[in-house]
Amino acid sequence: MSQRNFKTIDLANFQQRKESIVKDIMTAATEQGFFYVINHGISSDEIQSMFETGRRFFALPDSTKAKYPLDVPRNAGWEKFAQLRPQTGLPDLKESMQLAFHHIPDLWPNQQDAPNFQNNVQCFMEQCNRVSQQLLECFALGLGFPEDFFTRCHDISQPDALNSLRFQHYFDLKGTVFDASQFTPTKLDAVEECGSLVTSEDVNDYYRAGPHTDPDTLTLLFQNNPGHDALEACQGRNDVTQFNQGTHWLPLCPQKDELVCNIGDMLMRWSDDQLKSNFHRVKRPEVDLSSRYTIAYFTQANKSALIQGRTKYTEPLTAGDFLRQAMERNHQRVKMLIDQRHARKQLEQQQLEQQQLRLEEDDNDEDHSVDYRNYHHHHLHLPSSSSPPPTTTSQQPTTLAPVLAI
Ligand SMILES: O=C(O)CCC(=O)C(=O)O
Ligand SMILES: [Fe+2]
């Protein structure tokens, strides 16, 4: 555990070993909220073939993928640079394709664009669901609910099921596009459309996946980079209603075919904050800049299911309302961050103009022997992106790209 930072849950002989699995999983979920899962029953071949399916889809031209645009209410479709994170107000450096169990006939890539995609992905989603059901049974037992308490409200046979699978492609960052000193916004047009006013000073604020918690019950994550420590988790979230994140991040290093699982906000609320939905992030890599692919299976309660804690969050809330409220909170926060960025840019611009004026005055002073013409390029101190943003709000209204449910 020390090297790998997180506990490993072994699902072998599930029925016979259930009692000890429940004990292990409750400790892992209470202490860390993240754990590895082995012997989950999804074969190496199936996992590899799913990564291939995802890679082939992402290799299609954007114009083809855009035939299946993300539809937030239906939890499905393709997006690129559009997932804004409430901790940064910036989009992830990725594209993703999300699939749901129901109501998305128009969002499944057709046979011509992606042969057998729908069949293969649906089979895989069912496999993921089987694993997620086993874990849900353990959580129900561990929290003192009937064994089928959670599986009944995460029922994919129901039309309002919200479980979904998401392919994620974090972009190849080779080249100079994300080098702050040579930054050109060409590849980031979409980001600018989000209203995030990208300039070279912002580049360091970008993550592959910005710090966030998952609003679902439980996330199963397949990574295809054995031992690669790209995903990091932060310990110690005490209250599911809080945005505060800590400062101590631990890398996750799954072995080949191991799952990384994490508790989401729904289960944290359901367990009265006992099980931790902790912040996690994927930083921009410093060495291996090649593309990174992951597949996430989000286990979310059916839209009409009631989420009700037993001691702390006693008022019942449907999963649909829970997600709506989470999105609204995220949206407000992202809007605030974008407005602050707007204001900061305006301030920077004003400072630049004032500096320029002063330099011009100096230039006109014939007593000066030093050439100050390029002074501001080298010495002007701009507020860095880590400086506290000014509190003034921008005059310009902010337009927002959709903030995803997850
Ligand atoms: O791709 C990863 O490693 C993490 C993705 C993630 O946290 C998410 O999609 O919610
Ligand atoms: Fe996540």
TrEMBL record:
<keyword id="KW-0560">Oxidoreductase</keyword>
<keyword id="KW-0408">Iron</keyword>
<dbReference type="Pfam" id="PF03171">
    <property type="entry name" value="2OG-FeII_Oxy"/>
</dbReference>
<dbReference type="InterPro" id="IPR050231">
    <property type="entry name" value="Iron_ascorbate_oxido_reductase"/>
</dbReference>
<comment type="similarity">
    <text>Belongs to the iron/ascorbate-dependent oxidoreductase family.</text>
</comment>
<feature type="domain" description="Fe2OG dioxygenase">
    <location>
        <begin position="190"/>
        <end position="301"/>
    </location>
</feature>
<dbReference type="InterPro" id="IPR027443">
    <property type="entry name" value="IPNS-like_sf"/>
</dbReference>
<dbReference type="GO" id="GO:0046872">
    <property type="term" value="F:metal ion binding"/>
</dbReference>
<dbReference type="InterPro" id="IPR026992">
    <property type="entry name" value="DIOX_N"/>
</dbReference>
<dbReference type="Pfam" id="PF14226">
    <property type="entry name" value="DIOX_N"/>
</dbReference>
<dbReference type="InterPro" id="IPR044861">
    <property type="entry name" value="IPNS-like_FE2OG_OXY"/>
</dbReference>
<protein>
    <recommendedName>
        <fullName>Fe2OG dioxygenase domain-containing protein</fullName>
    </recommendedName>
</protein>
<dbReference type="InterPro" id="IPR005123">
    <property type="entry name" value="Oxoglu/Fe-dep_dioxygenase_dom"/>
</dbReference>
<keyword id="KW-0479">Metal-binding</keyword>
<dbReference type="GO" id="GO:0016491">
    <property type="term" value="F:oxidoreductase activity"/>
</dbReference>
<feature type="region of interest" description="Disordered">
    <location>
        <begin position="379"/>
        <end position="406"/>
    </location>
</feature>
